[in-house]
Amino acid sequence: MPISDKAQLRVFFYRTTAGNEPVREWLKALPPEERKIIGDDLTKATRWSCHMALSSSRRRLHCKTCNWPDSPFNRWLRNEQGKMNEKHLGGSLDDFLEVEGRLAEAEAVATRRLLAFQIAKLMEQQQVSKAEMARRMSTSRAAVDRLLDLDSESATLATLEKAAAALGRRLYIALM
């Protein structure tokens, strides 16, 4: 279940004037287990940081694809006429993860973390304690702790639906 394009930062590898992508080459040279860790972390960071910015009550950002036009990176990529300067724009992180066979798993982890964050945020806004959340969901406090643990993979769709209902929300899932 990928996070929509509206909740992602597009990440591209730096390309030298000679056409090399040193970061991609470095990643490819790492052992598979280290590529997996780095790929997961980068995917989490790109999905997570964009959602954090979009959901912040202190900031209201309009973000079509989370490529903010005023970011230093995007100013660097654009020439004086405002057109994209692709001279140093290499392949994307998503393409790299797809080739590695890691994109779907990395997106699932990022989605799970995003849902845990959203549930915790709603609990905070509604001033619902973990004990109260457990009562509303007819479950244990330990189950709520696992649900809110950003690194846990134990939440099922049924648990997520219960959590959403306990907070007066619905879980919406779509195939894209």
Describe the protein's topology.
Elements: E1 12-14, H1 22-29, H2 32-55, H3 72-77, E2 89-92, H4 93-100, H5 103-126, H6 130-137, H7 141-148, H8 157-166
Antiparallel strand pairs: 1-2
Helix pairs in contact: 2-5, 6-7
Describe this structure in words.
The protein is mainly alpha-helical. The chain has one domain. It is 55% helix and 4% strand. It contains eight helices and two strands. Helix 2 packs parallel to helix 5 and helix 6 crosses helix 7. The protein is elongated, with a radius of gyration of 19 Å. The termini are close together. The N terminus is likely disordered.
Q: How would you briefly describe this protein structure?
A:
With 176 residues, this protein is mainly α.
